[in-house]
Amino acid sequence: MTGEQLVASWLASLQNERRLSPHTLRAYTATGHRFLAHIAEAQGRPADLQLLATLTAADFRGFLSARRTEGLANVSAARELSALRSLAAHSRDRHDTPFPGLDGVASPKVKKGLPRPISPTDARALADTTGEMHDEPWLQARDTAVLLLLYGAGLRIGEALSLTGEILPLAESLTITGKGRKQRTVVMLPLVRDAIEQYLKLSPWPVTRNTPLFRGAKGGALSDGVLRATLRKARTALGLPETATPHALRHSFATHLLARGADLRTIQELLGHASLSSTQIYTSVDTARLLDVYKSAHPRG
Asked: For strand 173-177 and strand 183-187, is the pairing parallel, antiparallel, or unpaired?
């Protein structure tokens, strides 16, 4: 089996079985092909399954070192290594060919940064202004509805854009299938329900049980790239920082719930985190916010 065939079967399994997000798939695809090209150049011949199984820890470190000369930071190097470990697991499980050399490669140390939430006022302004970037009323209503869904229900952008007409008619709660096909129930606030219903009323595209809820201008499924591009314009117009992204709205959802007294277990369930440790970072976010308020308002701050 060639290296290209191995990578192709790996990517197919990630898409069809693990159902990774398009963003992650693009990143893993790039890593797989970069790695094969590096090994082919270093070894003097195209990489096949037999060659990959004989690679040493030094060979894998050589790939990461070459990537670092291109300016790769620790967090990105760790992501590249994670992709290679996933490829190795696929080779072991599907082709009974492990990559033992990877066992001797340690992950780069990554300093975990805090999420950067935005205020409730800015979150609503960002949702409204992103909609206002369009001329057509139904497109305005669409973008506002999507972003309010991220902020009001804590959805990932991929989760919101994968919704279909199956969720209609809207109720007070919604079942979401997130990462790893794990399901969770989120609350649908009246503000969010009203925004979605307004979009559906204006949209020229009928929504059936199996069609996308949020449509692009030509009727296909709305892509996250289109939404992100429009949001960037709105962010600039509002003078918000680059950290005001769709995912920041999800962070804001969690941080504002915590500030209002919600417990971590509840937030974990609403966000769909597999472990509580992923949710506990929001306690640091809230503490950081309180310290900022203290320093700016206290006379001895």
From this structure: antiparallel
* pTM, two decimal places: 0.54
Q: Known catalytic residue: 156?
A: yes
Based on the domain organization, do 10 and 77 belong to the same domain? yes
Stated as kind and residue range, the H or E segment containing 269 is helix 264-271
The pLDDT of residue 22 is 66
State the maximum Cα–Cα separation within the chain, in Å, rounded to a whole number: 70
Catalytic residue among 179, 184, 232, 289: 179
Catalytic residue among 38, 90, 250, 256: 250
84 Cβ neighbours under 8 A, 6+ residues apart: 31, 35, 60, 63, 99, 102
Active site residue 111: no
Q: Tokens 């692009």 identify what position? A: 216
- The last residue of one of the domains, among 219, 234, 250, is 250
The tally of domains found in the chain comes to 2
- CA 183, CA 176: separation in Å to the nearest integer? 5
Catalytically annotated residue among 28, 151, 199, 282: 282
Where the chain has pLDDT below 50, the residues are 114-115, 256, 258, 263-264, 267-268, 270, 272-301
β-partners of residue 174 are: 186
How far apart are the C-alpha atoms of 271 and 185, rounded to whole Å? Answer: 9
